[in-house]
């Protein structure tokens, strides 16, 4: 049975942070010295996540194991550093422990027992706009916490939103592998991410800021409310081409029962101009957020058939991009040069080749060996001469 925190009190008193910001140091040595490793929970482009249980406490955690050489280790350490700086927020997955060896890093984090939000929503017949607003508000709180600490996530997508417990309403934001510090006179382009969630400035190779996170939240909101993606094409090249243009066309049928406040929220998040795009604090004060505190008496039920169709396509993309063991990171621009038109081409061989095995020559059986006969008369005669 997987243990999950049931309330804010559980969040405050459990784990190493005790509700405070505490720095986690990475350890040397195998993870198995301190944890029992269980089933695989999932995998992404960077690594594979496993359920693990700490020996001396019996507590359940998630262990994200990443394998990579040279420059890939910089990406691993970046996620470790970013998590260390923002683990005090209840809406962000917290770092608990870390282990590092020559080609491997394992991040031990709190376990979100409910799995990814989208997967849970697709098991239901319908959802409501109120629920979506509630989830988006928590996502905004997580992003606002990061922005207050001069950190942008830069990789938000629907797969990174996790439920704290099964069938619960609390969520956490995970996967900080692309997160970076944003400071005045210290911004630069980013050529990575999931195509349908990246902002136009990322797709166009321009400098990125906190505004890229708000764009991604707008895309997430659009998907949760309608079950369709505003920019997704038949391949990554087509998707990024649409993102570069930044033209948002609302599906009239899908939005027919969605409030005007929700539409306005999405429009302000998907503002093509970075300078006028809504910020996290402004988004938390947007009129649509009032819905998260006021449950309607008879909310409209949004059928999840479209959401299931979208989720299937999302998983197909993620499954193709996911690593087998070794860390993967391909640029967005690569889909404009590769024949597949995909960032992660299907069937691509990316795992580093194994070191060649030492050739072992089988030993010959004893009967195959020939021992030459020796003439011992010479040695015997010499012995006789010496003994005289």
TrEMBL record:
Superkingdom to which the source organism belongs: Eukaryota
Domain Protein kinase residues, every copy: 35-289
Alphabetical UniProt keywords: ATP-binding, Kinase, Nucleotide-binding, Serine/threonine-protein kinase, Transferase
Pfam families per record: Pkinase (PF00069)
InterPro entries from the UniProt entry: Kinase-like_dom_sf (IPR011009), Prot_kinase_dom (IPR000719)
GO cellular component labels: nucleus
GO molecular function, one term: protein serine/threonine kinase activity
Entry's Gene Ontology BP terms: intracellular signal transduction; positive regulation of apoptotic process
Classification via PANTHER family: MYOSIN LIGHT CHAIN KINASE, SMOOTH MUSCLE, SERINE/THREONINE-PROTEIN KINASE 17
Protein name in the entry: Protein kinase domain-containing protein
Species of origin: Scylla olivacea (Orange mud crab)
Lineage of source species: Eukaryota, Metazoa, Ecdysozoa, Arthropoda, Crustacea
């Amino acid at each position: 049975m997987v243990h999950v925190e049931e309330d804010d009190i559980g969040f405050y008193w459990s784990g190493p942070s005790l509700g405070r910001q505490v720095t986690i140091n990475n350890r040397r040595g195998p993870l198995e010295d301190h944890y029992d490793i269980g089933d695989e929970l999932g995998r992404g482009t960077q690594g594979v996540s496993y359920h693990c249980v700490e020996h001396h406490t019996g507590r359940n955690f998630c262990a994200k194991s990443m394998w990579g050489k040279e420059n890939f280790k910089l990406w691993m350490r970046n996620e470790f550093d970013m998590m260390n700086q923002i683990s005090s927020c209840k809406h962000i997955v917290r770092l608990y422990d870390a282990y590092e060896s020559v080609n491997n890093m394992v991040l031990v984090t709190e376990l979100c027992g409910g799995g990814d939000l989208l997967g849970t929503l697709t098991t239901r017949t319908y959802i409501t706009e109120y629920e979506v607003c509630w989830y988006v508000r928590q996502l905004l709180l997580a992003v606002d916490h990061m922005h207050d600490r001069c950190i942008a996530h830069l990789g938000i997508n629907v797969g990174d939103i996790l439920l704290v417990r099964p069938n619960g309403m609390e969520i956490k934001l995970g996967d900080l592998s692309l997160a970076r510090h944003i400071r005045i006179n210290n911004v630069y382009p980013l050529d990575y991410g999931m195509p349908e969630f990246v902002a136009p400035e990322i797709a166009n190779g321009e400098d990125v800021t906190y505004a890229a996170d708000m764009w991604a939240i707008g895309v997430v909101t659009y998907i949760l409310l309608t079950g369709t993606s505003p920019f997704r094409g038949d391949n990554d090249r087509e998707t990024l081409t649409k993102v570069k243009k930044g033209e948002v066309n609302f599906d009239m049928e899908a939005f027919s029962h969605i409030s005007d406040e929700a539409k306005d929220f999405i429009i302000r998040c998907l503002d093509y101009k970075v300078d006028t795009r809504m910020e996290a604090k402004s988004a938390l004060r947007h009129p649509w957020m009032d819905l998260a505190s006021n449950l309607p008496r008879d909310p409209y039920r949004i059928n999840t058939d479209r959401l299931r169709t979208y989720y299937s396509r999302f998983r197909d993309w993620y499954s193709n991009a996911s690593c087998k063991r070794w860390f993967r990171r391909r640029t967005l621009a690569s889909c404009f040069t590769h024949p597949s038109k995909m960032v992660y081409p299907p069937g691509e061989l990316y795992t580093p080749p194994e070191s060649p095995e030492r050739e072992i020559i089988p030993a010959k059986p004893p009967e195959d060996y020939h021992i030459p006969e020796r003439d011992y008369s010479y040695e015997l005669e010499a012995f006789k001469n010496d003994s005289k």
